[in-house]
């Protein structure tokens, strides 16, 4: 199997956040900062976090992913839990937690560039990420990884429908197409549901809203788990 995958041209659709570069750790730091700042007199940090998770989920449905949505969720959580009114100064501080994320330099995960360099010699590479279009394309530009990819697709949500759309758009053959990423919920399960193959590369710090049980691939489709990004070049 390994030999065939190496010698037959495949299409690898590769996730970006927490697959190519660190992302969730910056949100975790911002959330920790927000929780200390809120310094709630009777809710524990875990309870504040639980409320924020719920509010974030509502905002994702309302306005989509991205820093704007995150900042709004922090603000709404503050209003829900704080006895103090939201003054302009507090608003500024809360939005500052989200802004700090945007100012983070892109930190590539280990061996990402040399692995992509090797893979692109044998396969077709597409970057597939979800979120705010401007934020995601900005990160791709700053990462320096864009030249490795034939195209960059930013979708508002990664579900079976959006994978079907990408298959159509690029005229992909499902049998030789793989979605590679760290999120069972966004990268693996919907790609398998869309009839594709998938490679799960777990990241120790995956966003809680991305957690899901990994599905099993039906007959004729394949789901591989690799411990590190670098191992892609041994498999493909
Ligand atoms: Mg990801």
Major sheet: size, sense and barrel closure?
A: 6 strands, parallel
- What class, by secondary structure content? alpha/beta
What do we call the CATH homologous superfamily of the largest domain? Answer: HAD superfamily/HAD-like
Radius of gyration over C-alpha positions, nearest whole angstrom: 19 Å
Could you say how many structural domains there are in total?
2
The helix/strand series, from N terminus to C terminus, equals HEHHHHHEHEHEHEEH
CATH class descriptor of the largest domain: Alpha Beta
**Principal-axis shape:** elongated
Number-wise, the strands total 6
Can you tell me the CATH architecture of the largest domain? Answer: 3-Layer(aba) Sandwich
Helix content: 40-55%
Uncertain runs are: none
What does this structure look like?
The chain is α/β, with parallel strands linked by helices. It has 2 domains: 2-21 and 107-235, Rossmann fold (3-Layer(aba) Sandwich); 25-102, DNA polymerase, domain 1, CATH 1.10.150. The protein is built from 10 helices and 6 strands; from the N terminus they run αβαααααβαβαβαββα. It is elongated and about 65 Å long. The model has no long low-confidence stretch (mean pLDDT 95). The structure holds magnesium ion. Magnesium ion binds at residues 15, 17-19, 181-183. Residues 15, 17-19, 181-183 line the site of magnesium ion.
């Amino acid at each position: 199997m390994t030999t065939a995958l190496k010698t037959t041209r495949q299409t690898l659709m590769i996730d970006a956040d927490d697959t190519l570069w660190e992302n969730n750790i910056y949100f975790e730091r911002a959330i920790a900062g927000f929780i200390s700042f809120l310094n709630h007199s009777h809710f524990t940090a875990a309870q504040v976090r639980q409320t924020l998770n719920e509010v974030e989920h509502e905002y994702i449905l309302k306005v989509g992913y991205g820093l704007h949505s995150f900042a709004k969720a922090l603000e709404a959580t503050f209003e829900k839990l704080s006895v103090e009114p939201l003054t302009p100064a507090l608003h500024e501080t809360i939005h500052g937690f989200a802004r700090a994320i945007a100012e983070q330099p892109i930190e590539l995960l280990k061996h990402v560039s040399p692995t992509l360099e090797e893979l692109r010699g044998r396969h077709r590479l597409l970057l597939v990420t979800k979120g705010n279009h401007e934020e995601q394309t900005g990160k791709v530009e700053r990462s320096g990884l864009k030249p490795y990819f034939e195209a960059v697709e930013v979708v508002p949500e990664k579900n079976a429908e959006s994978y079907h759309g990408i298959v159509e758009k690029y005229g992909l053959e499902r049998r030789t197409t793989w979605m590679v990423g760290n999120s069972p919920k966004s990268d693996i399960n919907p790609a398998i549901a869309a009839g594709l193959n998938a490679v799960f590369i777990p990241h120790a710090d995956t966003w809680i809203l991305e957690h899901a049980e990994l599905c099993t691939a039906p007959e004729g489709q394949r789901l591989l788990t690799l411990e590190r990004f670098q191992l892609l070049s041994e498999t493909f």
